[in-house]
Amino acid sequence: MAQRDTNPFPGSDDNKRYLTYSSYLRRRFGGKVIKIPLNIDLGCPNRDGTKGRGGCIFCSAKAGGDFAGDPCDDIGRQFEQLKTVMHKKWPEGRYIPYFQAGSNTYGETSMLRSMFERALAFEDAVGLAVATRADCIDGEKADMLAELSERTYLTVELGLQSIFDETAALCNRCHTYEDFLRGFGLLKERGINVCVHIINGLPGETREMMLRTAETVGSLGIHAVKIHLLHILRGTVLAEMYGRSEVRPMEQEEYIGLVCDQIERLPPEIIIERVTGDGARKDLIAPLWSLNKFSVMNGIDKELYRRGTYQGSRS
Fold it and tell me: Going by DSSP bridges, is the β-strand pair 224-229/193-200 parallel, antiparallel, or unpaired?
């Protein structure tokens, strides 16, 4: 009971020293809420030649949707298949349809609206999450998303990864931090919840750069953040770089220490949706320690307890 009895972070109801997504959803909706990842195969301007070819060096062939449904299936079927699995574990749960794979504002606004409206009508759906790139947001799409956000709990997830343009160039992101701020600004000025993704361990980045990315993102007035570990996956340019010893995967203790440093610097009201990421077991080359996700999460909890710190204690 030591952790629970001495936890100084007031925003937690699950004995964490940071504001978890599950805790936030439980308080907002009064029970368990589960994201259901969907794939509508919209692609990405960084793959089809509009901005670049091949995608980011770390991105899998499924464009980040490795755990989403089959894009050959209708989204209703995708949702029901995954919901059936989740219902066995959480029979009283409700759901947030999550357009995860690729850039989910990369298409005609009318088509996107139709997809999102369908998802909102799914049984037991209480919100909507849309993952995309900031350079796939324009005024028309932002207006459409703002209208949806007035009717449901909407979060738009923007993949930033790093605030440093030299890192973005090395990773073949094909957009700059300024590009990110433009798209983010269109959402923020309309009051839309934004979750920003960052990645620790990107090639060429120092600990100080990763801390600065977290601090800068925390200062933007965002709704949530996802902190990811860089995974080296088969079939990616990053895997080729790893084979040439051009990239070094982070060690577990190194990663845990860094994430704790970042959590301490994030404002306490920001939801931390993730503190590590999932790499598909069959595709993961390194770091293999990341397959034990609960060991990483427990390590972060223990380190914050050891330090006597919590989210926002250094913000």
Answer: parallel
CB-based contact 73:148 (threshold 8 Å): no
Residues 23 and 94: their CA atoms lie apart, in Å, by 14
Phi, psi of 37 (to 5 degrees): -75, 135
pTM, two decimals, is 0.94
Which amino acid belongs to residue 210? Answer: M
Whose CA is closest to 96, among 106, 108, 86?
A: 86
Instruction: Return the half-sphere exposure (C-beta side, CA atoms, 13 A cut-off) of residue 104.
Output: 26
Give yes or no for a cis peptide into 287 (omega within 30° of 0). Answer: yes
DSSP string spanning 202-247? -TT--HHHHHHHHHHHHTT--SEEEEEEPPEETTSHHHHHHHTT--
Task: Give one DSSP letter per residue of 154-196, joined into a string.
Answer: EEEEEEEE-S-HHHHHHTT----HHHHHHHHHHHHTTT-EEEE
Sign of CA dihedral 12, 305, 215, 162: negative
Task: Supply 165's token pair.
Answer: 């343009």
Q: Which among 120, 125, 60 has a CA at the least distance from the CA of 86?
A: 125
CA distances from 24 to 11, 14, 29, 122 (A): 9, 10, 9, 22
Distance of alpha carbon 23 from alpha carbon 11, whole angstroms: 9
What is the spatial distance between Cα 128 and Cα 97, in angstroms, rounded to a whole number?
5
Stated as kind and residue range, the H or E segment containing 304 is helix 293-307
Per-residue pLDDT tens, the chain, 315 aa: give them: 445 567 889 877 888 999 999 999 999 999 999 999 999 999 899 888 899 888 899 987 665 555 667 888 999 999 999 999 999 999 999 999 999 988 999 999 999 999 999 999 999 999 999 999 999 999 999 999 999 999 999 999 999 999 999 999 999 999 999 999 999 999 999 999 999 999 999 999 999 999 999 999 999 999 999 999 999 999 999 999 999 999 999 999 999 999 999 999 999 999 999 999 878 889 999 999 999 999 999 999 999 999 999 999 998
